[in-house]
Hints:
single chain; alpha/beta
Amino acid sequence: MNLTISGFSTALYATWFFVDDLALLLDCGDGASAGLLQKSRKVRTIAISHSDRDHLNGLPQFLQLNAREKGLPVVLYPRDCGSFGILRDFLHEFDRRGLKASEGNRWEGIASAVTWPLGKAKAVLEALPNRHIECEPGLIKSLSYRIFADHHRLRSEFAGRGEAEIAAARKRYGDSAVMISDRDTLLTYSADSPIESPDFWGKTRILIHESTFLHKEDAVSHNQEMRHSALNQVLPMACEVVSEALILSHFSTRYSNRRILSEIRRECRRLRPRFPVFAMLPGTIHRDILNERPAWEG
């Protein structure tokens, strides 16, 4: 599946990503409605990562314009983050015509490993708790997301056999005896997150990962190393998990666009990633970013 991804991401100000093919909005910072215009109507699922205002302040306008029958769009959020219940109740009261809980927009708190089907795309969204917000063990207040699709094919020993024989084998021995299942991770979204090991993310076609800082030392000097990632941490990790494309996001405005691109290219020359690397430059809406010119060709 070739994904069309548009978005805006600037640390402190706003972050949102629209995955057109999946009718999915990842986070909903300021400007999501204005940035998408009529395309905002396509969104069926809004997956919010955490309650920092730059990731959710676009919700009031987005829902007022787009709430419709069958509870769409559904808002998914970290189960134990109390801010979302407060915001939901306020919006249902503030926009009584379209957002009453019994009539329109649905909100669902989700936890670790919870999955959510993405409609006609036959893909599934999975919640991954991250360490951006410190909280007590067992509580979930910040999420990353993984989107995958499962593919099933007939085992070679059943090739050419009739439907009745295959159905009988499935009934007697179970699906796994007849079918082979493969999981294809289409997209992984870090949201705001400190750096994690490659094992945490697993293999993925496309990774959208924050790079608030260019160097780990910058994060440490601002006491943010436990909340955010740095470019020189993200690229080595991405080289072990990404197969098709890396999208770097959430850059701080303390860096100029020229410096961001220069540092990306310097790190890429050192590591030689075999995939293109794209940069969500601060203050810029990127439309169909995977068809833009990458910062590194791969």
